[in-house]
Write a structure and sequence with these properties.
It is found in: Membrane. One of its GO terms (cellular component) is plasma membrane. Its main location: membrane. InterPro entries: LSM_dom_sf, MscS_beta-dom_sf, MscS_channel_2nd, YbdG. It comes from Bacteroides nordii CL02T12C05. The N and C termini lie far apart (about 105 Å). Helix 4 (about 70-90) packs antiparallel against helix 5 (about 95-130). By secondary structure, this protein is α+β, with helices and mostly antiparallel strands. The chain is about 60% helix and about 10% strand. The chain folds into three domains: about 5-165, no CATH class; about 200-260, SH3 type barrels (Roll), CATH 2.30.30.60; about 260-380, Alpha-Beta Plaits (2-Layer Sandwich). It is elongated and about 125 Å long. It has a five-stranded antiparallel sheet. A three-stranded antiparallel sheet has the order 6-8-7, covered by helices on one side. The chain is built from 14 helices and eight strands.
Length: about 400
């Protein structure tokens, strides 16, 4: 059926000059077809998408909820008027071959774009479903989905360009091979991010929720998001740092996950004693320690050994820490004397706090070392304090 001639006859029948009718008949048909397509689109959206909304509201499932959320149905329905217009265009433009070709290209691009958006929605649905799984925290998928999105729109873009220039998509892809160096430069960060994402995931180097610290000091906080081009870290001062994934592969960083998952958080501090106050204990001193310090009530040095007051103090520190519920006794607890320096003799206290929450951890270690410092004079020792 020749819709153009049909409209031409109608216009002439209405008294329109034949020359004007010949000029505008096909244009009027094109406008009418667009109006019909738009009306059909609204009708289909109302029937199919509206029906799906009602179904989702009454019977919410993962698949139909995500179909609506990611607008997969909406974009698929948009292809219906595009296909209808494409099929009917030859009937409208009989004489105007150039207009027919341009209109068909526009329709084809519209259809491809709607399909790309629908497929992109499907990829986002896959990401949503995967994110809900418990394993998603250990294997973030967002970077891989972003790679597929880039490939999807890249291929779709090549196909649309091929339609516009009347070339085969295969010939355009072949031509891109010669421009590989330029493409590598343009997509350098994307390629590096993709490879780094695979390494981070395969080697389990970082997960969502991990506390990481960068030696540069640019980031010290919790990983919030891992994408193709960035790793987003919320610092403890609530600022946000973003670093490229490949920087975590090429440069060292500290991941505190092992500490979080272990039975405690390490405390390692020194108490520096004045070297001039170290001395051997007399029997009277030992008796006084036993009377005044309950934790040393049963202390007896090894036979033939005359302990120093520093040695007895180290014994006290160990017994004191062993008496505290907040100290994890199943992990290392080491009290050692380090090499003396011009600032005194360091006593290193090394143990693990059961409570790993930052605020509580700081309070616990502060209380413990307040007590240990206050006990130093009890052993006739002094803490070294520099003075001019």
């Amino acid at each position: 059926m020749d819709l153009g001639n049909w409209m031409n006859k109608i216009l002439i029948g209405w008294g329109v000059d034949p020359k004007i009718a010949n000029t505008f008949d096909e244009a009027i048909i094109a406008v009418l077809m667009i109006c019909i397509a738009v009306g059909l689109d609204y009708l289909c959206q109302s029937i199919f998408v509206g029906g799906m909304k009602k179904y989702t509201k009454h019977s919410p499932h993962v698949w139909n909820t995500l179909l609506m959320k990611r607008r997969v149905f909406h974009n698929l329905i948009h292809t219906i008027p595009g296909i209808l217009i494409y099929v009917m265009l030859p009937m409208a433009f009989v004489r105007g071959k150039e207009l027919l070709l341009i209109s068909q290209k526009i329709c084809a691009i519209y259809i491809i774009m709607s399909l790309l958006l629908a497929l992109n929605g499907v990829l986002l649905m896959i990401l949503d479903v995967y994110t809900e799984k418990a394993t998603a925290k250990n294997r973030p998928m967002k970077g891989f989905i972003q790679v597929l999105q880039v490939l999807l729109f890249f291929v779709g873009g090549i196909i649309m360009i091929a339609i516009l220039v009347n070339k085969s998509p295969a010939s355009l892809f072949a031509g891109l091979g010669a421009s590989a160096a330029i493409l590598m430069l343009v997509f350098k960060d994307t390629i590096l991010g993709f490879v780094a994402g695979i390494q981070l995931s395969a080697n389990d180097m970082v997960r969502l929720g991990d506390w990481i610290t960068l030696p540069s000091g640019n980031a010290n906080g919790v990983v919030q998001e891992i994408t193709l081009n960035t790793v987003k870290i919320q610092n403890f001062d609530n600022t946000i740092s973003t670093v490229p994934p490949y920087s975590l592969v090429s440069n060292p960083f500290q991941n505190w996950r092992g500490m979080v998952e272990s039975g405690g958080r390490r405390v390692m501090k020194n108490i520096t004693l004045d070297l001039t106050t170290l001395k051997f204990c007399t029997p009277e001193m030992l008796d006084n320690f036993r009377k005044e310090i309950p934790l040393l009530a049963d202390y007896q040095p090894e036979e033939g050994v005359i302990p120093t007051n520093s040695q007895v103090y180290r014994v006290y520190i160990e017994r004191y820490l062993c008496s505290l519920p907040v100290v994890n006794q199943d992990l290392d607890l080491i009290i050692s004397q380090k090499e003396a320096t011009e600032y005194g003799v360091p006593i290193q206290v090394y143990f693990f706090s059961r409570n790993k929450i930052w605020k509580e951890y700081e309070r616990i270690q502060s209380d413990i070392f307040d007590h240990l410092l206050a006990m130093v004079p009890k052993f006739e020792l002094k803490v070294y304090q520099y003075s001019d």
